[in-house]
């Protein structure tokens, strides 16, 4: 099947016109390349720590020729005066590309995209935090949930008593 698509997946049978007739059944499975960035779609990093974004590309007939990274839709320049930015790409059946940014700054916050040459791109939003911790954000959700649970329990008790 030339230019196969997902909808071409299924069971196929080849029949040979002999006496008696002979048939061979085959299962044909088309898989789509899959790109993921581990830990996404939102990543929180402490100021001055190392950002490590990991892009994994699976189900490719061949490894990508290149894997580009962008920050806010601009290709990342690994030789910029900022320094401390590097990429390591391991190609194979599963291709993994690591974007490393040392000593994260507030200006490193934004949208990062991994763009394999022969698969769909994937993006993640990076938030570099100065003194604010995502645990505090999570804690506020837990406190709100706790408060709502207690309120529901009180309403339920009042309803049962009445």
From TrEMBL:
It holds the Pfam family Ig_3. InterPro entries: Ig-like_dom, Ig-like_dom_sf, Ig-like_fold, Ig_sub, Ig_sub2, Zig-8. Residues 33-125 form the Ig-like domain. PANTHER family: DEFECTIVE PROBOSCIS EXTENSION RESPONSE 21, DEFECTIVE PROBOSCIS EXTENSION RESPONSE DPR -RELATED. This is Contactin-5. It comes from Drosophila suzukii.
